[in-house]
Design brief:
46% of the residues lie in helices and 11% in strands. The protein has 23 helices and 16 strands. It has helices at residues 14-28, 42-53, 60-74, 82-97, 101-114, 120-135, 139-152, 159-174, 183-191, 274-280, 321-326, 336-339, 345-348, 353-365, 391-405, 413-426, 507-518, 538-552, 561-571, 584-602, 605-626, 631-647, 653-678; strands at residues 204-207, 210-213, 230-235, 239-244, 253-258, 282-284, 303-306, 314-316, 327-328, 331-332, 428-437, 444-454, 463-464, 470-475, 478-483, 494-495. α2 packs across α15 (391-405). The longest helix is centred in the last third of the chain and has 26 residues, at 653-678. The two termini are 41 Å apart. This is SET and MYND domain containing protein 4.
């Protein structure tokens, strides 16, 4: 839960180190408060922990924490860094020279986030970012960042200033505004731009700027998130679970819900709109905060504003509707929930789920987050009695309560302590589908990327199976749940908490993973005792290994690969419980990629032909193993289409139709079209 990572995640590890130090200190002191033993009620345990943490028996590291928090509040801990900003700009310049404007713009945006406000370095970063947008024909974004760069440059007659002026004229001409010759007029014009809202479909409702699908058969009167043909049952063994009372077809929407849950009654005057509150109730991972807007979670094109007091908050620029919502009378209005945590961002980034707990606690404390009693955050299962230790949760809850008390929300530590247990069992990873293009070979890949975390109370009622019948989509703080199989009355709605039986065929490993994190023993059809295990015999496995070794050998002639793979295929059964590692599909895919690289550098027609053959084999393997309607097959089709396009063999119309059908079932019409737009160079 509380593991830090100072690599890709960009998170501080300070709290992880403090926790480690505190555990050692308590152990060496003989644990006089009984904190290492999970005994007593939650109230009793937290009372002991708070007495310890507030007293004189803690380690010096925990004592020093109070001074560190004061330094954060006083601005004595610098979060902006000119040196790091310069490094970002120089890295961006390397990609810019290679013509990789997308990667370059990401470097410049990261630099803008950490550069000192109104500095020369910030001006250079805005200017370089505008150059990327000029090359990408993103004219409005180019105009915006040129304006910001010029407003920060002291001398518009310098060589840099003149280049920026010329770039501004070019971009203004492209949008038909050659008349905008004065910087202030141009700046005022671009700040007032606002894109049109996406048209509302018959099957959608609008919440603020978000068009949200309505569940099939309309919303339940009892639980707004669910379809009226879904019902929640409860039993001692299963807890609360969701069952269908109607007939649904694959692709139908079963539920849609904002993070934090649907509010009760009418929204109070001055409270944030439903879409604003949905985003506020979940968090972005630290390494996403220069890529996505903190206020709407959309990918940033232009950067409208960055927080001057931290390096973790960037917001949309014009012409986005999000920018128009927050930019008023020439000033950017910072969301209150960010103000509540801004100074503590460095510390909050290090506490994992504790950051989400703090966010939910502040929204609750300010009476903004008030879901219906049936789906109250406090009503979610916490499995408290099953946790082997409460110390990390207790100290993190105490820290959240300490910080909340310093912003005027006292006595929240015990609530945070319990909420951390609930988050461990109920939190959802928020994901987004993105594409990536190989810089050297032009191959397009599709990946489901984790961008944040949120708590969706009604969705948490849905139980696990190692073969799910639903899929999740996330958009701007909302979750949308669709069935990926036809459902009949009496069918239970089932999601997969992580270990899918096809991806993780080892039943014992799946059951252990679920028991460790969620404290239940899976009894789905793929985890019962009667499961028939199918795998290669020792003799077959020996033949398999020898064939794989020969295929991977650099001495193997290219012309013999197809026959070797045919022999390997005869040993392979995609539907087997335990496929060899690596599988037939993985070997075909890896070999195809190696041949594709060779074909791109040597122009070998034979290598291209075999690469396409093996990519097709990999695709067929995935279809047989996961199903012709599976998302795994859809992404394999993308790979096949991009290789087909690269080698110039044929068109991809049939592949596109199949891909679109699967994506509509999993993600709906809007998201399917967005993904296909990202793949426009392939189809």
């Amino acid at each position: 839960m509380l593991r830090g990572n100072d690599g890709k995640s960009g998170a501080s590890r300070i709290w992880e180190h403090i926790l480690s130090t505190e555990v050692e200190h308590i152990e060496s002191d003989g644990d006089p408060f009984g904190l290492l033993k999970p005994v007593g009620t939650p109230i009793e345990y937290y009372a002991r922990l708070k007495k310890y943490a507030d007293g004189k028996h803690t380690s010096q590291a925990l004592k020093n924490l109070h001074n560190f928090i004061f330094d954060l509040e006083s601005g004595l801990v610098e979060c902006k860094s000119s040196e790091k900003a310069i490094n970002c700009r120089e890295e961006g310049n390397k990609y810019f020279k290679l013509g990789d404007y997308e990667t370059a713009s990401g470097c410049y945006k990261k630099g803008i986030l950490i550069a000192e406000i109104d500095s020369k370095e910030a001006a250079l970063l805005h200017g370089n970012l505008s150059a990327c947008f000029l090359h990408q024909s993103k004219w409005t974004a180019c105009i915006w960042h040129v304006c910001l760069a010029l407003r920060l440059h002291d001398d518009s007659q310098s060589s840099i200033g003149k280049r920026l002026q010329l770039r501004l004229q070019q971009a203004c001409t492209k949008v038909g505004r050659e008349d905008l010759t004065v910087l202030n007029e141009c700046y005022e014009w671009v700040t007032k731009l606002c894109e049109d809202a996406a048209p509302l479909l018959d099957s959608e409702e609008r919440y603020g700027f978000v068009n949200l699908p309505v569940p099939k058969f309309g919303r339940s009167k009892k639980l707004k998130a669910l379809s009226s043909r879904l019902v929640v049952h409860e039993s001692p063994k299963q807890g609360r679970y969701v069952v269908s009372e109607g007939y649904f077809k694959a692709g139908d929407v079963l539920a849609s819900e904002p993070s934090g849950g649907w509010g009760k009654g009418e929204i109070q005057c001055g409270a944030p709109a439903a879409d604003e509150l949905a985003v506020a109730s979940c968090i972005l991972l630290p390494f996403q905060r220069h890529i996505r807007c903190l206020a709407c979670h959309n990918q940033l094109e232009s950067v409208g504003y960055v927080c001057p007091d931290c390096n973790g908050a960037a917001f949309c620029g014009p012409p986005s509707r999000c920018f128009s919502r927050h930019f008023r009378n020439g000033q950017f209005i910072m969301p209150q929930w960010h103000k509540d945590e801004c100074r503590y961002a460095f510390l909050l980034n290090s506490i994992g789920l504790g950051h989400l707990c703090y966010r939910l606690g502040t929204l609750r404390g300010r009476h903004l987050l008030q879901p219906d009693r049936e789906v109250s955050l406090d009503s979610l299962v916490d499995n408290y009695e099953h946790f082997p230790s409460h110390l990390e949760y207790g100290l993190t809850g105490w820290l959240c309560g300490l910080l909340m008390g310093r912003i005027g929300l006292p006595n929240c530590g015990d609530w945070c302590f319990r909420m951390l247990h609930r988050l461990q069992c109920n939190v959802h990873a928020i994901t987004q589908i993105n594409t990536a293009v190989s810089r050297d070979y032009g191959l397009v890949g599709v990946a489901q990327e984790r961008i944040g975390g949120g708590l969706f109370p009604t969705a948490s009622f849905i139980n696990h199976a190692c073969e799910p019948n639903i899929a999740y989509q996330f958009t701007n703080g909302f979750i949308i749940i669709r069935c990926i199989k036809d459902l009949s009355p009496g069918d239970e709605i089932l999601t997969c908490y992580g270990p899918h039986f096809r991806h993780n065929p080892d039943m014992g490993a799946r059951k252990r993973a679920l028991l460790e994190q969620y404290f239940f023993e899976c009894s789905c059809v793929h985890c019962d005792k009667t499961q028939q295990l199918t795998t290669l015999s020792p003799e077959e496995n020996d033949r398999w290994c020898k064939l794989v070794e020969k295929i991977c050998s650099s001495k193997t002639p290219l012309s013999t690969l197809p026959s070797l793979f045919k022999r390997l295929k005869r040993l392979s059964d995609p539907t087997a419980t335990m496929t060899p590692k690596p599988s037939y599909g993985e070997i075909a895919d890896e070999t195809a990629f190696g041949l594709f690289k060779e074909a791109m550098t040597t122009s070998s027609s034979e290598a291209r032909k075999v690469a396409l053959y093996l990519t097709t084999e990999s695709c067929d393997f995935v279809r047989t193993r996961f199903g012709a309607d599976s998302i795994e097959y859809a992404w394999e089709l993308v790979k096949l289409a991009t290789v087909t396009t690269a080698v110039g063999e044929s068109n991809n119309d049939g592949v596109k139709a199949t891909l679109q059908r699967i994506m509509r079932s999993y993600y709906g019409e809007r998201e399917a079209n967005r993904i296909l737009d990202l793949l426009s160079d392939v189809f």
